[in-house]
Amino acid sequence: MAADLDVVNLFIIAGGTLAIPILAFIVSFLLWPSALIKLYYWYWRRTLGLQVRYADCGGYRFCYSCRGKPGMRPSILMLHGFSAHKDSWLTVVKYLPRHLHIVCVDMPGHEGTTRTDTEDYSIQGQARRIHQFVETIGLNRKPFHLVGTSMGGNVAGVYAACYPSETCSITLICPDGQLLHPRETKFDNHLQDLEHSNYTLNIPLIPTTPEEMEDMFRLCSHILQGLVDVQQPHITFYQEVFMEIFGEKSRYALQEHLHLITAPLQVIWGKQDQVVDVSGATVIAEELSGCRVDLLDNCGHSVVMERPCQTAKLILDSAQLPGATSGKHQ
């Protein structure tokens, strides 16, 4: 009888030991979803071997994550999109060989990089800041492969045009901005409505509620609330950047700089992109002979999230880096 009680007590203790962390996780998930999202990013950076570092230049601080060291092969610099951060690349970095030197930087004013009221957040202004970052960490000691998505793709294109000797190849993933392409998207129509309303309507790329975030990511409600909580303190800043990158100064920045790009160029685009129409890929290819275009079926604007493995393989293939496999080349 005593032995039976010991067994029961053992099960109760074991069950209680397991229940406490599970209960703590559930409570944290319900009460502090944004904290769990940050923990998730921290876990994946650690798992993938990425280290967070800072680079200071004249009172301006850049935050970036990196893996590996510069070597015989070109380094890879990755520029994220509007209102995102360096951890947006984690899904792609997962499929990149560990021996490659990879740098993912927080764009000007985003996440851990310095934010100032006097900063020029136009596409050209951001390109100049990224060049400052590249010089600060010595990444331009030899040409590197530059990758950018959405806003980061726009900045990457302008960067490659302004500093041609620093890039050995470029990958633009659904670069934003207007390319004078023939077809408009729902986002283009919304931009027109914004202009007509004198920017009093909600900006679709700056969600302030889980419902608006659902339009972008279609995730479960608590994760959505966590994403909203993470972005909430930065809403005013994102509105400022949005006005800059879609204003007259930046609107056609990529189009105006295309003819100055000399390094081999790759364009990756989701065929179902509802933010920037896929016909933009044709515009770029017609402007630059030899441009490689990879169009992804059943994929929208968030290529990095929707097709991370395929994106990594296409980047490696285009840059002719070890680990590449032949991708769909159109």
From TrEMBL:
Record-level GO cellular component terms: AMPA glutamate receptor complex
Signal peptide: none
SUPFAM superfamilies for this protein: alpha/beta-Hydrolases
GO molecular function: monoacylglycerol lipase activity
InterPro entries noted in UniProt: AB_hydrolase_1, AB_hydrolase_fold, AB_hydrolase_sf
AB hydrolase-1 domain span: 74-308
Top-level taxon of the source organism: Eukaryota
Keyword line: Membrane, Transmembrane, Transmembrane helix
Entry's Gene Ontology BP terms: acylglycerol catabolic process
Residue ranges of the TM segments: 12-37
Protein family membership: Belongs to the AB hydrolase superfamily.
Protein's recorded name: AB hydrolase-1 domain-containing protein
